[in-house]
Amino acid sequence: MKRLASLLVFLLPFSGLIAQELPNTQVYLFEIEQVTDSQFVFRNPKYLTGFNPYGYNNQPCFINNQKLYLSVRFPQSKQTDIYALDLEKNTKLQVTHTAESEYSPTLMPDGYHFSAVRVELDEVNSQRLWKFPISRLNNGEPLLPFVPNVGYHFWLDAQNVALFLVDQPNYLAIANITNGSIRQMTPNIGRCFQRSPSGRLVYVHKVTESEWWIKALDPRTLESQNIVQTLPGSEDFAILPDGTILMGNGPRLYKYHPRKDSGWVLIGDFRAYKISSITRLAVSKDNKLAFVARPGQSSGW
Questions:
Q1: Which H/E stretch holds residue 282?
Q2: Which of 8, 159, 183, 210 has the most CB atoms within 10 Å of its CB?
């Protein structure tokens, strides 16, 4: 596999990160091919964030098979903005350019907008959910202006959104952006939300410091069911169209299928690329895998 030939060089809750330096994180892309239930091949590796090698690059979100949104902060900058990477043209575009910081870009159900968490410049650094047009025709608007403590979010449908609300403890809530209702659900949750093939909200419940469970919540009954314990210390995951859950642990990638596996199965080791601490996974509809990692002593690309 020719690493350099495939190289692309594009020319916590956040309140806890504002007062400190954000970590140096990079985003990588692979194409996934599933050969058998337990054998996966990862092809065409691409290093996506060569335009910001010493900065913060995080929270990848596929807007479509060609376009990937990221949260980006350069070392010399004081705020985080949303960038769009065109994976076919190998170009980048700054989507937001504000005095505030935006995080967690997420495609909205209508396909024409994305949402993000904006850290505002008030005395308490309020974290509100905002809506922006992908066309960039206007500057966006707050969706839940009365909720100042949004850490992360995930859309269940056009009206209902799952929220990680920053509190003591942090907790899962379901909000309706039409009538403003908020239903408080599970405390001590992780930052990652995904949807199962059956439409359930999948999240991590941190029962104790060492016992973390991936759970699935039925949005109709609001009842949750245990799926599997997470890998030790890992809370980020992605779900493939067939229901396979992917989770990183250090430089390795594992999979678990609720109907096929009795435990986590190792499917990839990325140490050859000097990649460590795989987090923030995202999967496109055409089987591209993007993830965040802390680079090793040498980029290896």
A1: strand 275-283
A2: 8
Residue 296: the pLDDT is 63
Tens digits of per-residue pLDDT, 67-122? 999 999 999 999 999 999 999 999 999 999 999 999 999 999 999 999 999 999 99
pLDDT for the residue 20: 53
Q: Considering only residues 297 and 230, tell me which one the structure prediction assigns the higher pLDDT.
A: 230
List, as one string, the DSSP characters of 186-218: EESEEEEEEE-TTS-EEEEEE-SSS-EEEEEE-
pLDDT higher than 90, residue 295: no
207 sits in the region (left: phi over 0; alpha: psi -120 to 50; else beta) called alpha
Q: Are 8 and 48 in contact (CB under 8 A)?
A: yes
Whether 104 maps to a domain, the answer reads: yes
Question: How many whole angstroms separate alpha carbon 137 and alpha carbon 112?
Answer: 11
Q: Tell me, what CATH number does 252's domain have? A: 2.120.10.30
> How many folded domains does the chain comprise?
1
Whether residue 255 lies inside any domain: the answer is yes
How far is 244 from 226, CA to CA, in rounded Å? 15
- Look at residues 200, 259, 288 and name the one whose alpha carbon lies nearest to residue 8: 288
By the 8 A CB rule, do 279 and 237 touch? no
17: which residues sit within 8 A by CB, 6+ positions away? Answer: none
In whole angstroms, what is the distance from residue 247 CA to residue 209 CA? 19
169 cis-preceded (ω within 30 degrees of 0): yes
Distance, in Å, from the CA atom of 251 to the CA atom of 293, rounded to the nearest integer, reads 8
Q: Are 124 and 134 in contact (CB under 8 A)?
A: no
Residue 287 lies in a domain: yes
| Domain range enclosing 184 | 4-295
